[in-house]
Specification:
Elements (H helix, E strand, L loop, with lengths): L28 H14 L7 E7 L5 E7 L2 E3 L2 E7 L3 H8 L2 E8 L4 E11 L2 H8 L4 H9 L9 H14 L11 E15 L7 E8 L2 E7 L2
Antiparallel strand pairs: 1-2, 1-5, 3-4, 4-7, 5-6, 6-7, 7-8, 8-9
Helix pairs in contact: 4-5
Protein name: Pyridoxine/pyridoxamine 5'-phosphate oxidase
GO molecular function: FMN binding; pyridoxamine phosphate oxidase activity
Function: Catalyzes the oxidation of either pyridoxine 5'-phosphate (PNP) or pyridoxamine 5'-phosphate (PMP) into pyridoxal 5'-phosphate (PLP).
């Protein structure tokens, strides 16, 4: 490794965007998340709906990847994927999931923990046909997570399918679907000076939500 590269141990900064107090919180974590997401959009963050999804395989090995949040409401958070993908295969055997929103430039993070359920075909069809046509075709072209020998194979398949579906609608692939994350806890993290960050954890109860401050 080059001697000119800065030692990563020396890379640091202060978090000065402001604190988070109990009085700032909503009673419902989804209302709090909606407020923070709106502020992330207003700040023109790149991909404010990008979330890191963590799943675990049959050996207990964790995996992470970035997907886009496509809807949220009181029933949960929704994302879509190829059902033959590695994450979908993991979730078929172990529905537990963690998703993390890393809003670095606002010194904020949000983490949801819960379990997933598959979306209905009606929900998937409705969203699939709202996507740009090239995105619909790309879903057909890519057998997500499968090994390919060269990018040209993928591009060639895309062009072949683009010609095939030149006229008319692109049908929903049988292997494409989505998940709803039924979350049981949500943590909000706001960076603070001197590493005295503010963390609040919402935990679902029979009567609503408990809220606890966590040490940084």
């Amino acid at each position: 490794m080059s001697d000119e590269f800065t030692d990563v141990a020396d890379l640091r900064r202060e978090y000065t965007k402001g604190g988070l107090r109990r009085r700032d919180l909503s009673d419902d974590p989804l209302e709090m998340f909606e407020r923070w997401l709106k502020q992330a959009c207003e700040a023109k963050l790149t991909d404010p709906t990008a979330m890191c999804v963590a799943t675990v395989d049959e050996t207990g090995q964790p995996y992470q990847r970035i997907v886009l949040l496509k809807h949220f409401d009181k029933d949960g958070l929704i994302f879509y994927t190829n059902m033959g993908s590695r994450k979908a295969q993991h979730l078929a055997k172990n529905p537990k999931i963690s998703v993390h929103f890393p809003w670095y430039s606002l010194d904020r993070q949000v983490c949801f923990l819960g379990e997933v359920e598959r979306l209905s075909t009606l929900e998937v069809v409705k969203y699939f046909h709202s996507r740009p046509k090239d995105s619909q075709i790309a879903a057909w072209a890519s057998q997500q997570s499968s090994r390919i020998s060269a990018r040209g194979i993928l591009e060639g398949k895309f062009l072949e399918l683009k010609q095939k579906f030149k006229q008319g609608d692109v049908p929903l692939p049988s292997f494409w679907g989505g998940f709803r994350i039924k979350f049981s806890s949500v943590e909000f993290w706001q960076g603070g000076e001197h590493r005295l960050h503010d963390r609040f954890l919402y935990t679902r109860t029979a009567d609503g939500w408990d809220i606890d401050r966590l040490a940084p």
